Structures
1.
Amino acid sequence: MARRGSVWVAAVRTPVGACSAVLLAGVVLLAVLAPLLWGDAAAAIDTDAIGQSPSGAHWFGTDSLGRDLFFRTLVATRLSVGLAVLATAIGVGVGVVLGTLPSVLPRWAGRLLTAAVNVAVAFPGLLLALFFAVIFGVGTQGAVLAIAFAVAPAFARLVQTLSASVSGRDYIAAARVSGVGRIRLLARHVLPNIGEPLVVNATIGAGSALLAFAGLSFLGIGVQAPDYDWGRLLREGLDGIYVNPVAALAPCAAVVLAGLAFNLVGETVAAVVGVRTRATRRSPAPLPAAPLGSAAAEPAADAVLVVENLQVAFPGPNGWTVPVRGVSFSVRPGEAIGVVGESGSGKSLTALAVSRLIEAPGVVTADRLEFAGTPLAKAPDRELGTSLAMVFQDPMTSFNPARRVGRQLAEVSEQHHGLSRRAAFARAVDRLTAVRVPAPARRARQYPHEFSGGMRQRAMIGMGLMGRPKLVIADEPTTALDVTVQRQVLRLLARTREAEGAAILLISHDIAVVSQTCERMLVMYAGRVVEDLPTGAPAQHPYTRALLATTVDLETDRDEPLAVIPGRPPEPDQVPEGCAFAARCPLATDRCRDEDPVLEPTADAHRVACWHPQVSVLSGQSHEEGAA
Ligand SMILES: Nc1ncnc2c1ncn2[C@@H]1O[C@H](COP(=O)(O)OP(=O)(O)OP(=O)(O)O)[C@@H](O)[C@H]1O
C-alpha cells in the first residue's frame, strides 16, 4: 500500500502529473465552492449594466440582463463538470454491461449484441448524441442520457477487447475447470483485471463528455434556462461577440481548461496504473559496486565467454535490488557448462545478461563481459545474432504464433546473412532436418501451434543453428517436456555441440540433467556462484551437497523420506551480511554469518565459496574437521 502511495507521489512530481493535480484541484474546488460563494452574485440582474464590456466592476462584462459573466462562468463549473462526470459514469456502466453480457448470454444473443455494439461504434459520437438527445427529449436529463448512450458503445467495445485478452489466461481456465459460474467468473476474475485500463479511459472520456455536453447546450438541446453551463454561456455570448468577445471566449477557455484537466489526469493515472514500473524507473541512488564474488582467475585465451564480477540490479522503491551479485566464470569453445540452483538464484538473469536481454530499468555491470573476444556491449547485433543462440523454456511463447515456423527461422538468415527469401527458407528446411523434425518441408509451412512441445523446442534449437553458433544458451529447455522428449532434446544439444563445435550453457534446476549433459557445473545461490566443479567430482559446498542429496533416481530408497533442504533462499533485497546460505547450513559458524566467502580455487578446475568446504553434511562431521 505504501509502495503504491509512493508511486502516486512520484507520478504527481512529474511535469504532467503536477499540471494535472493543480488543474484538477482548481476544477474540483470551483465546482464545490463557486455556487456557494458567488451563486447570488452570478444570478443578480442589473438593468443599469446590460451588455457591458469588461471593466473593473465586471471583469468579463455583463450579459443581456446585466448579470456578471465572470461569476457566471465560475458558477457554471459545477453543472458543466458534474453533468459530464455523470454522463461518463452512466456511459461506462452501460458499456461494462454491454461489453460483458456476451460472455453470459447464450451464444446467439451474445453475437447479436456484439454486432450491435460494433455497428454503434462505427457511428460518430456526436451524431449518436444528437440522435439520443432527440429520443430522450430536450433538457438536462435528456442530454445526460444522450451523451451516456453515445459513449457507451466505445466502452462496451473496450470491455469486450480487454475481457477477451484476459479470458485466455490460465487462471480463468483454472477457475472454469473448478466449476466457477459465468457471472462469478466475470465479477471475480475478469472485471478486476480490466479495471485499471477502464478507469484510465473513463477519465480521458470525461474530457470528451464535457466537450459534447457544451456542444449540446450550445445547440440549445442541453441545459435549459434558468440553469446554465458553459455551453449555454457560449451560445449567449456568441450573440454579442462583436460587442464583448470575452463573453464567448471565457466559457470556451473554461471548457478547454477543464477538458485538459481530465485528459492530464487520465495520462497521470495511465502512467501509474498502466505502466507501473515507469515511476520507479528513476534510479534510486548510484548503484553500489559489485562485491567481489570470486578471486580473479585468468580465463583461457580462446574463451568464448568471459564473465567477471557480473551484477544485475533493478531499481525499487527502497533502493537497488541486486539478484545477481558478482558472478564470474568463463566458457571455452565446445565446452558444456550447466548452471544449477534453486528457483530465484539468478540463473536466468545471468543468462539474459550474457545475451544482452536485460531490459531497462534493469542495470548490468561487470568488470569483464566478453563474447568471442569482444566486449559484449560492443558486439554488433549481426555477430550476436549468428554466433549466440538462445533456447528458452517455453518455445510456444518464443515463437510468434501468427507466423509460420519456417519463415521465422528464415528471417535469421535474411537478416544476418543477406540470403534471399527463397534461399533463407531452404536453409530453414535444412536446419529443421538437422534437428530431426519429421517432414521438415511441410512442417516449415506450419504455425507453432501445429507443432508438439518437443518439436517446437527442436525447431527453436534449429533457429539457433541458422547461423554458426559459438555458444548456445539453453534456459530450462526441457522443463516443460516429458522424459522421453527431454532426452531427445538433450541429445540434440549434445549433437549440436559435436557437429557445430558450439559451447553450451545449460541452465536447469535439475542437477541430474546437467550431470548427464555437461562436464562442468556452476552452482548458484542467492545471486552468487557458490561452487564451480567438474561434473562427477565430489561436491565441497554444503549447498551443492544438499542439492545432490535431494536428487531422486531409481536407486533412491523409497522407504526413506525424501531429502529436503530446510528453509528458503533469501529474497534478493534481503540477502544477509555474511554467507547467504548460512541460515540453512548445518555447518555455519559465526564467521559464516559475518563474512561472505569468496569463490576460490580449492583443487584443479574446482572453485568453492565456503569457509568450511569438503564437509559432509550427511555424515554429520563437525565443521572444525571440515575446515581443517
Ligand atoms: N525484472 C525484475 N525486477 C526485479 N527482480 C527481478 C526481475 N527479474 C527477476 N527478478 C528477481 O531476480 C531473482 C532471480 O531471478 P531468476 O529468474 O534469474 O531466477 P532463476 O534462478 O532463473 O529462477 P527459476 O529457476 O525459477 O527460473 C528472483 O528473485 C526474481 O524475483
2.
Amino acid sequence: MQNADPAPLLQLQQLTKRYRAEDAAAVQDVSFDLHEGEILALLGPSGCGKTTTLRMIAGFETPDAGDVLIHGRSVLELAPRDRHIGVVFQDYALFPHLNLLRNVMFGMQQVPRAQRAERAREWLQLVGLATFAERMPDELSGGQQQRAALARTLAAEPRLVLLDEPFSNLDAALRESTRIEVRQLLKKAGTTAILVTHDQAEALSFADRVGVMQAGRLCQTGTPETVYHVPETAFVAEFLGHTNLLPCLAQGRQAQSPLGEINLSTEAQGEVMVSLRPEHLSLEASPASDANCEVISREFRGHDNFYRVQTAGTTPAEYKVLAPYDCVLPAGAPARLTPRQPGVILRG
Ligand SMILES: Nc1ncnc2c1ncn2[C@@H]1O[C@H](COP(=O)(O)OP(=O)(O)OP(=O)(O)O)[C@@H](O)[C@H]1O
C-alpha cells in the first residue's frame, strides 16, 4: 500500500540569512516542506529574498540560522554530487565551446559512457531539439537555449531542480510556450522543482503550490487557487492581482461594507478588512435614481472590460471591476455595483 504521507524530499527549517550585520535579514525564518514530484513557485517582488533562499537550498550559501534538509540530511553535510540538485539560471550557462549533444552529455556521470550520446539525444528529443544536437549554443534562439539548458539539467537526473527566473529573457509568446513545455517535462519526469519568479501569472500557471515572499519572509503558501482566491494579507491579495480592500463591520458570515450588506467567506466579529477581487463584483447600467456608482474609465481587453468606478461618500471611493466583453458603459455613466462573491477577510 502506498504511504499516504511520505517524508518530504526537502525541508526548510527556519532558514535565516543576513549578508551584513547592519542590513535587514535577506531571508528570515523561512520554513516549508516539498514532496517528491511537487513543483513550488517562490513568488515575490525584487529583493524579497527568493534567490538567497534558492542559493541556500542549493548549498551555495550558508544560512546564519536554520537548516535545509534533503531526505532528512543537511545539504551542507552532503558532498555536492550527493545532493542531486540541478540548477537552471536565467542566463542558461551552456558551455559555449560544446555543441548541444555534448552539453547535455556533460552532466550524465550516472550513465555508462557508451550510452551517454544515445540518452542525450533522447533528452534533446524530449525538449524538441533533436535536430539541433550538433549545433553550437550561439546558433540557437533564447528559447531553444533555455530548453537545452533544461535538458542538460534533467539529463543528470537530479532529485530536485531549482529554476531561477528561467524564462525572464524570453519574449512574451515564447515565455508562455516554454513554461508550458517545461512544466510538462518536469511532470513527465516526475521531477521535484522550485521556480523563483516575480511574475504572478507565471507562478500561478506553473506551480502546484505557491509560496509568496515579502521582505525576507514567507507570508503565505498554498495552491495557486488558494493564494489567489483566499489571500491572508493585503500584500498577498495585491501582489497576486488587482483587488478592492473594504473596511467592514462583521457579524458572523455577514458584514456591513461600504457597498452595503455583504457575505463573508469566513465568520468574524467587529472591524475587519475584506478583499473583493474585480471579478467578484458585478456592474450593470442603471438609472441614476438606482445607481450606486459612476464609471470613471473602461479598459477594453478583448475578452473582458476592466472598469474603474467611483462611489459617493464611501471609503474606498474607487473600485476596480472586471465585466464581460459585452458590458460596455461610457465614462460618466451611472451604474449599479454589486458584490457577487463572499468577501475574504484579511489579517494584515
Ligand atoms: N551577495 C550579497 N551581498 C549583500 N547583500 C545581498 C547579496 N545578495 C543579495 N543581497 C541582498 O539580499 C536581499 C535579498 O536579495 P535576493 O537576491 O535574494 O532577492 P530576490 O527576491 O531574488 O530579488 P530579485 O527578484 O531582484 O532577484 C536584497 O536586499 C539584496 O540586496
